[in-house]
Input
Amino acid sequence: MKFLQTGLLILLLLLGASCSRHKAVRFGICTDVHKDIMHDADQRLQAFVSQMNEKDVDFIIQLGDFTQPQDYNASFMNIWNSFEGPAYHVLGNHDMDNSKGERYSREYTVTYLDMPAQYYSFDVSGYHFVVLDGNDEKDPPQEGYAHYVSTEQMAWLKKDLTQTELPVVVFSHQSIEDPDGVENADEVRKILEEANPESGKKKVIACFSGHHHIDYSKSINGIHYIQINSMSYFWMGGDYLQVRYSKEIDEQFPYIKYTAPYKDPLFAMVEIDSRGIIRITGRESTWVGPDPWELGYHETRREKISTRITSRELEF
Output
């Protein structure tokens, strides 16, 4: 009898260790706040941080195009830093901009945001999280903003994936699935896909991105790719100018009229549990002023352009 009791105790301890290794992890996620475009960016960010503090999530992360690294944005950064836990950043293409139309170095922005590096990884609650930097220069350089992952960074990614036995979630600003995202996305996806059979299990389970200001999810070769909508707006461009708030706000924040803003801030809470479920709890808002199609915007894009982050359950 004592032998059976001892064996049962050992079994329970092993089962407990197995469950605790891959317990649920919860994090808050937002992207494309665009502090230097939106007049109410501070209030939007405060709503996110306050709710994530209330939900007591394990960490928060923003996926880029957050704020220009300038002294007058210190109060905005203070809101972010008021989160009562770890808070992580992803570099967006606009995070190196400044008000004079010039560009800061990525190193300067990394220091301003207090990031550990341009790309890095971390572990939380039995899961491995990878932050990529999609702003590498291609040789020869691309037109416009750089949107590439260098050979050096891909080598780092391969090594990082081999050094963990945990389920992996990847964060980037530019999508590594969308044709308008990272230019060499197929090479990056190949690294992620090859990590799965090499480990004998599904290692990389999901990739989250921002940049495109759309609400969208698809699966490629067993990996989920989720695009998180902007906290603030959809960019319309110069053909669809519309003063959305007031003449006074437009004079101080002249780029808002190029956008279709969301009345309320959009963000999400993500929970990943040991049963193989990724649960995304999103938010929904309305347009400020006319919606894009009232202004003649492309009907073919209606499916992905919205004032919401869709709540989803994805299996892995």
